[in-house]
Specification:
It contains 14 helices and 14 strands. By secondary structure, the protein is of the alpha/beta class. It has a 7-stranded parallel beta sheet with strand order 3-2-1-4-5-6-14, with helices on both faces. Strands 8-7-9-10-13-12-11 form a 7-stranded mixed beta sheet, with helices on both faces. It is globular.
Length: about 425
């Protein structure tokens, strides 16, 4: 198709960039929200520069009593900025500390006031402690963001019914919008590390993706976009068939590890075990797109390998560790201690970050404004539609016009039935 200069100008006008990156949809939702019973909040989040505005907006409606920073993604300057603005920010010492002790911090807040309280978290860190939280009648429940977190709550519920409501946005269509971009953010950060610290680029390398879910698909596409030779592996045979149909060459895990120069773990589970050590190609790079340090059995590797820290003293660079298997002298590299590679940079910004933050906020609204039975609750479609309509009115200019206000999209789902 021939694209004229005029057409290009029209495209630019229709899709302007929000240079400041403010959370415009979230701001609109906040302005429409009140809090008649003075519900408070606790936020367990990745504390990055892009998180500050979200916390401030939430705080304006549901006062933030405590911020718990996820250990591996706590930007120290941002932590200090939040503290200077009067927030209590706690950084647990490690993941085990988060899993076993952060619930006690919430209990302290519940015992210090009888005002209602909700948690917004990322990763399911309270999943095993809902019985403790449920002892307080003014605790309204948890909002959970990720698949990892949802799986934790589901596993806890399989052992014993949950004692509080948990609203999950992990598997919603709006969340999939974010997932579709996380992969590119991961590959972007990986390539920055390779260029600046490993004198390499991705083009021409064999890249393996373990776990071909929503994030794995976007990682694979990002690798292809950088001219890599890409193959995938998923434990689900149906997913492998889908990958084959889309040209992503599924191969057995042992073969994938044996031929790949880079492996990106995207399964959200343990993807590379001690049993897989002998299958690793010499010099392979392991990095993660998961939400925590779960993809690789680093503790198990440490029992069999000598570990060398490549980046000691290099402030601001990605941690690179070289693992050498004592028995065979085969070696491989692990980036960022196996935690998500995309947190080296600002993984999401602008319009898509606004979508994610807005979805989290409507989950908090739902918990704060209505009574729910204990258990896992999926975010309803009508609330997702509310966010999506506001997003369309805010970002693509073509949806902001007077004529566009009459479009059927703004009357969905009723407009399905219009004659």
């Amino acid at each position: 198709m021939h694209i004229t200069t005029t057409h290009l100008l029209n495209i630019e006008q229709a899709n302007g960039i929000n240079m400041e990156g403010h959370l415009l949809v979230l701001d609109a939702l906040v302005k429409e929200t009140n809090n008649p019973d003075n519900t408070r909040s606790v936020i367990l989040q990745h504390i990055l520069p892009t998180t500050v505005e979200y916390i401030e907006k939430v705080n304006s409606i549901y006062p933030v009593e405590l911020i718990i920073a996820i250990t591996y993604s706590a930007d120290q300057e941002t932590v200090e900025l939040l503290r200077s603005r009067g927030y209590e920010v706690v950084i647990p010492k490690d993941i085990d500390d988060m899993l076993n002790n952060t619930w006690k911090l919430v209990v302290e807040k519940l015992e210090s006031s009888d005002k209602p309280l909700i948690i917004q978290e990322v990763g399911g860190y309270f999943a095993d402690w809902t019985e403790k939280l449920g002892e307080y009648p003014h605790f309204k429940g948890c909002v959970e963001d990720t698949n990892n977190g949802l799986w934790r709550y589901q596993a806890a519920a399989n052992n014993k019914p949950l004692s509080v409501p948990v609203i999950s946005m992990a598997d919603t269509p709006l969340k999939h919008v974010e997932d579709a971009l996380i992969g590119d953010a991961c590959v972007y950060s990986l390539e920055k590390v390779m260029r600046s610290q490993m004198s390499s680029i991705i083009a021409g390398l064999r890249c393996g993706v373990v776990g071909w879910g929503h994030i794995g698909k976007s990682v694979a596409a990002a690798f292809v976009g950088r001219h890599a030779d890409v193959s995938i592996y998923d434990i689900n045979p149906i997913v492998d068939m889908l990958a084959y149909a889309q040209g992503y060459s599924p191969v057995p895990l042992a073969k994938l590890l044996n031929v790949s120069d880079i492996i990106m773990g995207c399964s959200g589970r343990r993807s590379i075990r001690v049993a897989d050590l002998n299958d690793l190609k010499n010099g392979i790079i392991l990095c993660s797109a998961s939400s925590k340090n779960i993809e690789f059995d680093l503790e198990g590797f440490a029992q069999l390998c000598d570990i060398e820290d490549i980046t000691i003293g290099d402030i601001g660079k990605c941690a690179i560790q070289k693992y050498t298997v004592r028995k065979t002298q085969k070696f491989f590299y692990v980036l960022k201690q196996g935690t998500p590679i995309n947190f080296l940079d600002k993984p999401l910004q602008g319009a898509i970050l606004d979508c994610t933050c807005s979805e989290l906020f409507v989950c908090m609204q739902e918990l704060a404004s209505k009574s729910h039975n204990p258990g896992i609750i999926s975010l309803t479609e009508n609330l997702q539609v509310t966010v999506a309509k506001k997003w369309l009115k805010t970002y693509p200019d073509v949806f902001k016009t007077k004529d566009a206000e009459k479009d059927k999209v703004y009357f969905y789902p009723e407009s399905w039935y219009w004659e």
